[in-house]
Amino acid sequence: MKVITILGSPRKKGKTAQTLDLLEDNLIAQGHEVERIHLTDHQIKGCLGCHSCMKKNDVPGCVLKDDAVPIFEKIILADVIVYASPIYCFDFTSQFKTFLDRHWCLTQNFGTPYASSNIVSKRVALLITCMGMAEQNADLAQEIFERSMRGVLGCNIIGKYVVPLSEAPDFKDRAKEIADKLLEDIMIED
Ligand SMILES: Cc1cc2nc3c(=O)[nH]c(=O)nc-3n(C[C@H](O)[C@H](O)[C@H](O)COP(=O)(O)O)c2cc1C
Question: Please, is 177 exposed, middle or buried when counting C-beta atoms within 10 Å of its C-beta (0-12, 13-18, 19+)?
Fold first, then answer.
C-alpha cells in the first residue's frame, strides 16, 4: 500500500508530527510505502477562484505554478491519504486550509448533475491534535473535512481521529492509542 501523510502543522516535530511518526513507523514495519508531505516545506499559494480548473476533466488543471499540483499527482496515485493538522482557532492551520482550498482543482462541474472528482473513492483519514478538549473545539474542522472530502470530492473517509489535551503528560500514550486505531482502520479493506 502507498500511504501519503500530509502534515499541516508548521512544527516539524510537534504533537501532530509525533502522532504521525507512530502511525508511519508501524506502516513501514508492515512493509507499506509511506511518504510524508510537510506543507510548510512547499510553496502552496492561495486559490485564485478563477475556475480555470473546471475546464480540465482528467488532470488537476490549476493555473498556479507551485507545489500543489505535483502533490495532487501523488495523491491521485496513492492508496491512502492521512491529512493531519493541529487545531488553530477552532479550525485547521492556515497552511492546511490553503491546501484544502486548492483541492478545488480536483473537481469538475461542481454543483451540477455532471459533477466529478479526480479522487472519487480515494481512502482518506483526518488526524487532529489540539490543546483543549475535542468537544466544541475540534468539531468544526471535522465537519469541514467531511463536507469537503466526502461531499465535494467523493472520497471514502476511513475515519476522523482526534488527540485532545496535547500538552497533558499522558499525551504520548493517548497519541499511540489513536495511531494504533487509525492503523487498524486503514488495514480494513473496503
Ligand atoms: C495560533 C494557535 C491557535 C490555536 N488554537 C487552538 C484552539 O482553538 N483549540 C485548541 O484546543 N488548541 C489550539 N491551539 C493549540 C494547538 O492545537 C495544539 O498545541 C496542537 O497540539 C499543536 O500541534 P503541533 O505541535 O503539531 O503544532 C492553538 C495553537 C496556536 C499556535
Answer: middle
Atom of ligand 1 nearest to the CA of 9: 27
Q: What's the average model confidence in pLDDT over 76-81?
A: 98
User: Does 8 sit in the ligand 1 pocket, CB within 6 Å?
Assistant: no
Contacts of 10 (CB under 8 A, 6+ apart): 40, 93, 95
CA-proximal residue: ligand 1, atom 6 (nearest):
88
The CATH number of 2-187, from 3.30.450.30, 2.60.120.1140, 2.102.10.10, 3.40.50.360, is 3.40.50.360
Q: What is the pTM (predicted TM-score) of this model?
A: 0.97
DSSP helix/strand/coil, 162: strand
**Which of 131, 133, 174 has most ligand 1 atoms within 8 Å of its beta carbon, as the pocket-test mutant?**
131
Of the two residues 57 and 97, the one the predictor is more confident about is: 97
Atom of ligand 1 nearest to the CA of 85: 26
How remote is the CA of residue 33 from the centroid of ligand 1, in Å? 29
